[in-house]
Amino acid sequence: MNLGVHAYAWTPEWNNSQLGLIQRCAGLGLDLIEIPLMRLDLCDPAAIRAECQRVGIKVCTSTVLNEKTDLTASDPAVRKNGVTYLKDCVRATAEMGGTTFSGVIYSAIGKKSDTRPTGREWEYSAAGLKEVCRYARDLGVTVGLEPVNRYETYLVNTAEQAVRLTQMIDEPNAAVHLDTYHMNIEEKDFYQATKTAGERLCHYHLCENDRGVPGTGLVDWEGIFRALGELNYRGNAALESFVEVSDNMREATCIWRDLAPSGDVLVKEGAKFIRSLERKYIR
After folding, report:
1. Active-site residue, selected from the candidate residues 186, 187, 208, 240
2. According to the CATH classification, is domain 2-281 in 3.40.50.1100?
3. Has 146 been annotated as catalytic?
4. Domain spans of the chain?
5. How confident is the model at residue 10 (pLDDT cuts 50, 70, 90)?
6. Which residues pair with 179 in a beta bridge?
7. Which of 39, 79, 173, 175 is the most buried (most CB within 10 A)?
8. How far apart are CA 30 and CA 271, in angstroms?
9. Residue 208 annotated in active site
């Protein structure tokens, strides 16, 4: 398993001034850094690739859709914008040497609805993602769908729903990205949800139930890693928390108190705990 950290542990926005975080990850003994692509215009794939190669760690990426790129929108122009944006993200991922791109990429994050999602909305999402996956396949990139909690999306909340959407997309590189923070709200069993994702699993966000240091809260880590061991999981996993957030991120992340003394402490303690479970269950 490639263990890393989401750059949000240290910074609210990625740009070239954050390239030093790649060395920081390597210095903390991690295998991987996850780069957010919400501001794709600030991302320099060539610089990221060069620095990752220099320090010897891997890279993956993630993003979310908004109201201007919503694949479930009734307006076909908005859906087209979403496909174009996701293709741009895929291309940037490949250019920086990554092979996994994932996130809330099936509908706008935070989208509210008066009704349950319709079959047409599922079909809109699957059609857009099918086009993205075909584009990504030619670049050697896997596309992961991340279920998130009911307050952040109305479409995909569980591993079962994510698998259903990958089946609708029907492309070999359509995959599932799980996140323990959201699973703590939406799933009934961490072990079973992980097994449900099964061979489709490409990425795992490892967060405590409060987004604090893994191992200090309510998440069933033993169940998760027992399932990962049975799956012989060799994909990516990243610690994801929002410790050193700026004021402009607080409304989006709803972090109003310190979850760890610092990003470094969260990574060091969290990685130590996760590595112990990896040694126990994944051989």
Report:
1. 240
2. no
3. yes
4. 2-281
5. confident
6. 205
7. 175
8. 8
9. no
Beta carbons within 8 Å of 273's beta carbon, 6+ residues apart: 213, 214, 215, 221
C-alpha–C-alpha distance, residues 58 and 99, integer Å: 9
How many Å apart are CA 269 and CA 43, to the nearest integer? 29
| In contact, 188 and 152? CB cutoff 8 Å | no
* Bridge partners, residue 142, by sequence: 100
Residue 229, token pair as written in the block: 């061991």
Residue with tokens 């928390």: 241
Q: What are the backbone angles phi and psi of residue 137, rounded to the nearest 5°? A: -60, -40
Radius of gyration of the CA atoms of the chain, in A: 17
pTM to 2 decimals? 0.94
* CA pair distance 217, 131, nearest whole angstrom: 40
3-state secondary structure the chain: CEEEEEHHHCCCCCCHHHCHHHHHHHHCCCCEEEEECCCHHHCCHHHHHHHHHHHCCEEEEEEEECCCCCCCCCCHHHHHHHHHHHHHHHHHHHHCCCCEEEEEEEEECCCCCCCCCCHHHHHHHHHHHHHHHHHHHHCCCEEEECCCCCCCCCCCCCHHHHHHHHHHHCCCCEEEEEEHHHHHHHCCCHHHHHHHHHHHEEEEEECCCCCCCCCCCCCCHHHHHHHHHHCCCCCEEEECCCCCCCHHHHHHHCCCCCCCCCHHHHHHHHHHHHHHHHHHHCC
Q: Tens of pLDDT along 11-33?
A: 878 999 999 999 999 999 999 99
pLDDT tens track for 182-212: 999 999 999 999 999 999 999 999 999 998 8
Residue 23 vs residues 17, 20, 48, 52, 64: alpha-carbon distances, Å: 13, 5, 11, 8, 26
Which one is catalytic: 121, 146, 186, 208? 146
Query: Which backbone phi and psi does 43 adopt, to 5 degrees?
Result: -90, 135
